[in-house]
């Protein structure tokens, strides 16, 4: 399975000097001026024979392009990894954050048995030195019945983000409240000016049949 991702965010310009980097170790990561890219094989132990590598294609100005190849089996619907590119952003108070413009474009080549999601991931805290209180996820893609967190098992409501309709779910991850905006129809390009304080783009690989 292969995922190719391009992220454009409002950041300072950086040269394209990081292309060709590939991460295959469980906790491998690499940094550019504006982003940190993680391979993050969070629960790789669920499939000891599985593998995943995350590669950096290019960094040009505020555009960060990366790819990921993986081969997972193991327990169905059990998350194996969270490969992601995290934008370096100083914390700000929500009412001072007018917008964080983000454009996501991706191409996901996968088998019909793939279970995975693509998401924009954001976190908030009550104070800079406090614990994360809320995680806000926007899912442009949910493949094969990929599961979101939900306390009730039912949506809270339907909302519109960037003129796109999403179904909103609420669940808990420990003491952290998770809000998941799920797009019913897969969309390969997503643009947003959402009001949030930190941002991270990730794909969650849950359980798949092995690629050939």
UniProtKB/TrEMBL annotation:
Keyword annotations of the record = Carbohydrate metabolism, Glycosidase, Hydrolase, Polysaccharide degradation, Signal
What does UniProt give as the signal peptide span? 1-19
Q: Respond yes or no to whether keyword Signal is given for this record.
A: yes
Oxidoreductase among keywords? no
Which domain of life does the UniProt lineage start with?
A: Eukaryota
Q: List the SUPFAM superfamilies hit by this protein, alphabetically.
A: Concanavalin A-like lectins/glucanases
Any one GO BP annotation for this protein: polysaccharide catabolic process
**GO MF annotations for this entry?**
cellulase activity
Q: Which PANTHER family match?
A: BLR1656 PROTEIN, XYLOGLUCAN-SPECIFIC ENDO-BETA-1,4-GLUCANASE A
| Similarity comment: family membership | Belongs to the glycosyl hydrolase 12 (cellulase H) family.
Stated name of the protein: Glycosyl hydrolase family 12
């Amino acid at each position: 399975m292969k995922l190719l991702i391009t992220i454009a965010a409002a950041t300072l310009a950086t040269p394209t000097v990081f292309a060709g980097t590939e991460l295959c170790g469980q906790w491998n990561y690499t940094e550019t001026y504006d982003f940190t890219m993680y391979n993050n094989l969070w629960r790789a132990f669920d499939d000891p024979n599985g593998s995943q590598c995350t590669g950096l294609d290019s960094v040009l100005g505020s555009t960060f392009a990366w790819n990921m190849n993986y081969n997972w089996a193991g327990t169905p619907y059990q998350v194996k990894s969270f490969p992601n590119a995290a934008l370096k952003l100083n914390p700000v108070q929500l009412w001072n954050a007018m917008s964080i413009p983000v454009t996501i474009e991706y191409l996901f080549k996968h088998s019909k048995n793939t279970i995975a999601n693509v998401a924009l991931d954001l976190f908030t805290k009550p104070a800079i030195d406090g614990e994360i209180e809320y995680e806000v996820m926007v899912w442009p893609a949910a493949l094969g019945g990929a599961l979101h967190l939900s306390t009730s098992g039912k949506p809270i409501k339907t909302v519109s983000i960037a003129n796109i309709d999403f179904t909103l779910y609420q669940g808990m991850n420990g003491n952290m409240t998770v809000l998941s905006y799920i797009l019913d129809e897969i969309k390969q390009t997503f643009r947003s000016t959402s009001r949030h304080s930190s941002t991270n783009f990730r794909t969650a690989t849950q359980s798949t049949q092995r690629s050939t």
